[in-house]
From TrEMBL:
The gene is ribD. This is Bifunctional diaminohydroxyphosphoribosylaminopyrimidine deaminase/5-amino-6-(5-phosphoribosylamino)uracil reductase RibD. PROSITE patterns: CYT_DCMP_DEAMINASES_1 (PS00903), CYT_DCMP_DEAMINASES_2 (PS51747). It comes from the Archaea. InterPro entries: APOBEC/CMP_deaminase_Zn-bd (IPR016192), CMP_dCMP_dom (IPR002125), Cytidine_deaminase-like (IPR016193), DHFR-like_dom_sf (IPR024072), Eubact_RibD (IPR004794), RibDG_C (IPR002734), Riboflavin_Biosynth_HTPR (IPR050765). Pathway: Cofactor biosynthesis; riboflavin biosynthesis; 5-amino-6-(D-ribitylamino)uracil from GTP: step 2/4; Cofactor biosynthesis; riboflavin biosynthesis; 5-amino-6-(D-ribitylamino)uracil from GTP: step 3/4. It comes from Candidatus Iainarchaeum sp. Its EC number is 1.1.1.193, 3.5.4.26.
C-alpha cells in the first residue's frame, strides 16, 4: 500500500472512530436522562432520549412518571420543527402500541426523524416490533449502541419481563463474625452510619421492600425512603397468620403496605389490618408456609418489578435456599458480636458469583449475583 493509500485509510478510520465516539456520547446522555425516572416510572422502564441534528442536541426528554409522556415524545416536543431529518437516540426500543400514551413510533414518524439509534430491544411483547414498524416506514433503525449500559440500567424491568417474577435483591448487614443480632434478639445498628445512604439508594431503586412478620414484631421498622417519603417503595410483610399489629409503623404511617398471609390467617386480624389501610393478599401455602414462587408471580401481576428483601435470617434464608434471588448484598461491619443470631441458615449449597466489593466507611460491602 502506497503512502497516499495508507494515509487515506488512516483518515477513514479516524473519521469512523470520531463518528462512533459521537454516537456513544449522545447515547450516554440519553442514559443519564433516563436516570431521572428512578423510583417514579415502574412498572415501566426508565427511558431517556435525545434528538440530534447537525451534530448538536436539539431536544432532550425522559420518561418522568408512570402514565406520563414517554421519553421520545418529550424529546421530540422540545426539538419541535428541528426534528425533521434529525437522528433520535433512545435507550430502549420505541413502543408500537396504545397504552396510557400513544405509540412512540407514530410520534417519531410524524416528526420526520431520519434515523433511530436504540440501545436495546424491549423484551415486553406488548411493546415489541417498534423497530420493525419504523424500518417498514423507511426510518433507518439500529440496535446495540451502549447496549450493556442500557440493559444494566433497566435490569429490574428486563429480568422481570423475561422471568415472570420481580428481580430479587437480598440485603443483610452482619458483624465481622457473621451475626445479624445480639443473642437476646435486641435490635441494634450493626453497620455504620455511612451505610445508611447506600441502603436508602437501594430502597429508592426497588419497587418494594419485603420483611417477615418477626422483623415487624421485634423492630417495628418504617421501611421508607427517608429522603422523600412519596418515593417510598411498597412495604411487603410475609405474615402467614396476620400477626402484624394494626398500629405497626409499616401500616399506620401511610403509603402502600401489602400483608401476605395464608387462608389460615384469622379473618378478624386480617380485617383489622385492612381497615387501617393495608392491602391483604392471600397466597398459596405449603406446610403452613407461604409459597414464595406463587407469591412472586402474584407480585409480578400487580406490576412489582423488583423486591428488596430486608427481612431477618429466616426470611432471607428461605429466598436463598429456594434460589429465588438475583443479587445478594452483604454489608460486613468491622464490629464483632461473638454470640447472636447467624445471618443465614441454609440446608443446601447456594452458588453466587462475587460481582463487586467496596468499602463504605469502616464496613465492607460484598455484592454477589446468581
Amino acid at each position: 500500500m502506497g503512502r497516499k493509500s495508507l494515509a487515506s485509510a488512516r483518515g477513514k478510520a479516524t473519521g469512523k472512530n470520531a463518528r462512533h465516539a459521537a454516537h456513544v456520547k449522545f447515547m450516554l446522555e440519553a442514559i443519564r436522562l433516563a436516570e431521572r425516572g428512578i423510583g417514579k416510572v415502574s412498572p415501566n422502564p426508565m427511558v431517556g432520549a435525545v434528538v440530534v441534528k447537525g451534530g448538536k442536541v436539539v431536544g432532550r426528554g425522559w420518561h418522568g412518571f408512570f402514565g406520563g409522556k414517554h421519553a421520545e415524545f418529550n424529546a421530540l416536543e422540545k426539538a419541535g420543527k428541528k426534528a425533521q431529518g434529525a437522528d433520535l437516540y433512545v435507550t430502549l426500543e420505541p413502543c408500537n402500541h396504545h397504552g396510557k400514551q400513544p405509540p412512540c413510533t407514530k410520534e417519531i414518524l410524524h416528526a420526520g426523524i431520519r434515523r433511530v439509534f436504540a440501545a436495546c430491544p424491549d423484551p415486553n411483547k406488548a411493546s415489541k416490533n417498534g423497530a420493525k414498524a419504523l424500518r417498514k416506514a423507511g426510518v433507518e433503525t439500529k440496535f446495540g449502541l451502549c447496549r450493556k449500559e442500557a440493559e444494566k440500567q433497566n435490569e429490574f424491568y428486563i429480568k422481570s419481563v423475561l422471568s415472570g417474577r420481580p428481580f430479587i435483591t437480598i440485603k443483610t448487614a452482619m458483624s465481622s463474625d457473621g451475626f445479624i443480632t445480639y443473642g437476646d434478639g435486641r435490635a441494634k445498628r450493626i453497620s455504620g452510619r455511612k451505610d445508611f445512604s447506600y441502603t436508602q439508594e437501594l430502597r429508592l431503586r426497588h419497587d418494594a421492600i419485603l420483611v417477615g412478620v418477626n422483623t415487624v414484631l421485634k423492630d417495628n421498622p418504617k421501611l421508607t425512603y427517608r429522603r422523600d417519603k412519596s418515593l417510598s417503595p411498597t412495604r411487603i410483610v410475609l405474615d402467614p397468620r396476620a400477626r402484624t399489629p394494626p398500629n405497626a409503623r409499616v401500616v399506620s404511617q401511610g403509603g402502600e403496605t401489602l400483608i401476605i398471609c395464608t387462608r389460615d390467617a384469622p379473618r378478624a386480624r386480617a380485617g383489622r389490618l385492612a381497615m387501617k389501610g393495608a392491602e391483604i393478599l392471600v397466597a398459596r401455602s405449603r406446610a403452613g408456609r407461604i409459597d414464595l414462587r406463587a407469591m412472586l408471580a402474584s407480585l409480578h401481576s400487580l406490576g412489582i418489578r423488583s423486591v428488596l428483601v430486608e427481612g431477618g435470617a429466616f426470611t432471607a434464608s428461605r429466598f436463598l435456599e429456594e434460589r429465588l434471588f438475583d443479587r445478594l448484598v452483604i454489608i460486613i461491619a468491622s464490629m464483632k458480636i461473638r454470640k447472636g443470631l447467624e445471618a443465614f441458615k441454609i440446608g443446601r449449597r447456594v452458588r453466587a458469583r462475587i460481582a463487586e466489593t467496596k468499602k463504605i466507611g469502616n464496613d465492607e460491602v460484598i455484592v454477589a449475583e446468581k
